[in-house]
Design goal:
Layout: H1 5-14, E1 19-20, E2 26-32, E3 39-40, E4 52-57, E5 60-66, E6 68-69, E7 74-80, E8 92-99, H2 100-104, E9 110-112, E10 115-117
Amino acid sequence: MKFKKQNLTLALVSLVLVIAIGSAVTFEGAVAVDPNTCSDTDFGLNFTNVGSINFTINQTFYGPLTDFCVNNNTVYEFACSNDLPALNLTDYALLATENCQSVFNNTNSTCLNGRCIL
């Protein structure tokens, strides 16, 4: 069973967990997933490559959820907590936002097709 991207995105954004770490990266939401089921094609917070995550919750498959541009300056990045040991979270699917100008420290950078480019 596939879950629509829009529904999961809204669910992730509406969750209570909001964590901010270094630079402009902000975690907008997180959802607990079945142990060891989250996989990310770009292996974490990789704002310069488009990636997708897949996972299961209560043995129901969700995905792929692909990184996308919110506007010309902001990328929504899906990630798995197991790829981010500094967060000290295991088995969560995460949604983060980043300003592309912060990625390159350059005002000419932009978001295109789910990734930041210069």
